[in-house]
Structure to design on (352 residues):
């Protein structure tokens, strides 16, 4: 509450700037480019941790057998600039951690990064014969107008209950949700009942209720990051963990480990954190103090991309670093509805 009161004047300034920017786009003083090609935009109204990347991966997994898909990201946190096509031999510093993760998990996808997405789309289409492009973190990037705009929001901290930065976590006014064609609420611990669904739907009357979805995040089996990805460890084999997280909301993973009965010590860093040698040495020292050879150093897939650069620095890290994968999960009927929206959208261009 004190944060909200103290930062409220600054939030008014931030709101006025973003409102002016949106006004210029809405009045077409700033003109968005529309491509005659299926582009799906995925974004959020708040900063960090809403579940955008799991949704990108869900769509890639859904369409991989039918379409050649591209992913376009700004490549947040990379040390390069301009247009770059991500390869499996890249690094997080070259391409950004999330694009590098997407390329590692979906080698067949054409993943590119560029600050200027209006420039990047034609380059992607020149490089490869694509059937669709997914623009990651695209809700505020209005220079390119996606044909299908998907807004993702954390179910536990929904955008309609949040405030503008820096009092809250919103990048722009909550009323701008109306630009979304589809809204996906993520991180539901249990799929909500009808009463809760109606409560949420009442807050977002400008979006068709049949295009609002409630999803959970499902954790998979940890796998080796620096050795063989096929080497996995079930939690039944693990009693102790050193948890390394440089993400926006590590609490969800900590809660999951607690429910799984895992003892853990956390090393928490800011989102997209660039790890140093000294920090890795402290993590390794903490692991040694566990005195348990069955223990692992557990991290997220996104953090794993940034820890790969230490591959040659420590044999122990190569042996014990495991990534915890996660997938977005829909209820069965809702998955069918969501999948139909995606396929119908892509097919609409094929039929033109």
């Amino acid at each position: 509450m004190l944060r909200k009161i103290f930062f409220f004047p600054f939030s008014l300034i931030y709101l006025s700037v973003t409102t002016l920017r949106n006004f210029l786009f809405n009045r077409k003083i700033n003109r968005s480019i529309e491509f005659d090609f299926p582009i799906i935009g995925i974004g959020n109204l708040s900063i960090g941790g809403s579940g955008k990347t799991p949704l990108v991966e869900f769509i890639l997994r859904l369409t991989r057998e039918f379409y050649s898909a591209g992913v376009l990201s700004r490549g947040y946190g990379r040390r390069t600039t301009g247009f770059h096509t991500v390869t499996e031999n890249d690094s997080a510093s070259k391409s950004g951690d999330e694009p590098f993760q997407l390329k590692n998990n979906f080698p067949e996808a054409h993943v590119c990064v560029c600050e200027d997405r209006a420039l990047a789309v034609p380059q992607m289409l020149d490089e490869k014969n694509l059937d669709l492009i997914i623009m990651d973190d695209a809700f505020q990037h209005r220079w390119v107008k996606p044909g299908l705009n998907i807004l993702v929001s954390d179910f536990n901290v929904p955008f309609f209950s949040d405030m503008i930065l820096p009092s809250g976590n919103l990048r722009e006014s909550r009323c701008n949700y109306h630009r979304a064609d589809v809204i996906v609420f993520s991180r539901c611990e249990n799929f909500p009942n009808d009463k809760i669904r109606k409560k949420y739907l009442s807050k977002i009357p400008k979006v068709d209720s049949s295009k609002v979805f409630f999803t959970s995040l499902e954790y998979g089996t940890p796998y080796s990051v620096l050795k063989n990805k096929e080497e996995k460890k079930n939690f039944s084999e693990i009693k102790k963990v050193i948890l390394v997280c440089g993400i926006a909301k590590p609490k969800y993973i900590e809660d999951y480990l607690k429910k799984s009965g895992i003892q853990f010590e956390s090393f928490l860093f800011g989102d997209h954190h660039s790890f140093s040698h000294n920090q890795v040495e402290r993590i390794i020292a903490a692991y040694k103090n566990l005195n348990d050879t069955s223990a692992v150093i557990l991290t997220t897939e996104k953090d794993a991309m940034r820890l790969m650069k230490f591959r040659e620095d420590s044999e122990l890290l190569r042996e014990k670093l495991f990534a915890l994968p996660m997938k977005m999960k829909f209820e069965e009927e809702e998955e069918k509805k969501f999948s139909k929206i995606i396929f119908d959208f892509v097919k609409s261009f094929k039929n033109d």
About this structure: The mean pLDDT is 95. The chain has two domains: 2-67+131-218+329-350, 221-324. The longest strand covers residues 212-219.
